[in-house]
Amino acid sequence: MSRLTLLCAVAALLLAAGRAIPPPEEAARMARFVLHNCDWGALATLSAQEGLRGRPFANIFSLSDGPPGPFCGSGVPYLYLTDMEISVQDLEINSNASLTVSLAQTPYCKKHRYDPQNPLCAHIIFCGSIVKVNDSEADIAKKALFSRHPEMESWPKDHNWFFAKFNITNIWVLDYFGGLKIVTPEEYYSVKP
Fold it and tell me: Where would I find the CREG-like beta-barrel domain in this sequence (predicted)?
């Protein structure tokens, strides 16, 4: 086991033991924290499908910004996609999308009895575009995704799976009362979760 893998495993145990979330005044850290602790998100595209053309269309996708653990996330949402998927077909026409991730999928909100719509059950909305990763980034994406979603490795090869990332241009954080907070990509990538 590599030193980084061991560090990530220990860090994941610490998180499971109840590591505190960032305070509301640290919106960029909160955005990184929520993304890193979520395994899936709702990806919204503009539909290219007959009868829905130009309308919003949301779908659930598994994602990862790195192996589990507080020091193992890059902040980049990676996805494993196939052209056979309806939302990916939308993205081939218009790569713009939004991605929402929420702590509602973690034990945190249930533990505190927060409804998923309660602002204290933090959620993050990213806007940007989906792009295929280049060969040099494919190994990073593969490690990030397969460490959290090991089933992916056995998905049918004839589906022509590829690694992609969400290229973030805008970030909104809802983690407290009083409305959304805007975080720039520069602020987001400059902090650790």
Answer: 22-190
